[in-house]
Design goal:
One of its GO terms (cellular component) is nucleus. This protein has about 200 residues and is an all-alpha fold. It has six helices and no strands. About 10% of the residues have low confidence.
């Protein structure tokens, strides 16, 4: 009854609702400073202008911040970890695409320098450019690994919060909660095994 906009919502409608109710509602759940992430998403997604890869990367990072913050409250029936995984896949695809484009640009630049340079400069160019492309590849690889490890941490964190909530000694019905906690541990074990296999691959 008090919502700024009534459903059904578009994504832009939802972002408007977040902005409108941020201080009164969402600011009590996650840090209020994250309003800047909502505003960033709204400013980019409420226009019809096409987005370049750098803008998409910013949007993915801001979205990851929001998901991470809300994960401290709940996993939202498993929807949030799935969404976070999907975001990480998109981010990985984007960084891989950027890497291939950077390597192509480096190759083209190296070709131009070979055409224009004198013989001594040619040797320097051939030594320097592969090193530069290797550095770019290493940096992107590090970002990719960091992104995977961040996903690992968030998955384990979500399951851990869920388990500790179910093991709360103040709860009235201890037996069902312990059974749920055991199921939660099984889910966590399965998730960690998947992560281990992924890292070994």
């Amino acid at each position: 009854q008090i919502l700024y906009l009534k459903p059904p919502w578009t994504l832009v409608n939802l972002l408007k609702c977040y902005k409108k109710h941020w201080v009164a509602v969402f600011g009590y759940v996650v840090p209020r400073s994250l309003l800047s992430a909502i505003e960033c998403l709204y400013n980019h997604l409420s226009t019809d202008k096409p987005l370049d890869s750098s803008a998409v990367e910013i949007l993915l990072q801001e979205s990851k911040k929001l998901f991470h913050a809300f994960s401290s409250r709940s996993d939202y029936d498993g929807v949030l970890p799935q969404a976070y995984t999907a975001l990480n896949k998109l981010y990985q695809m984007l960084t891989e695409q950027d890497l291939s484009e950077d390597i192509m640009v480096l190759s083209e630049n190296a070709g131009c320098e070979k055409m224009e340079a004198m013989a001594p400069n040619l040797q320097e160019s051939e030594e320097g450019k592969p090193h530069a492309s290797f550095q770019v590849a290493q940096e992107n690889r590090h970002q990719e690994i960091w992104s995977v490890l961040e996903g690992v941490w968030n998955a384990i964190n979500l399951y851990s919060i869920e388990i500790f909530q179910k093991l709360d000694p103040n709860a009235l019905t201890a037996k069902p909660l312990f059974e749920e906690a055991f199921l939660g541990l099984q889910k966590l074990l399965a998730a960690v095994n998947d992560i281990r296999e992924g890292i070994s691959r």
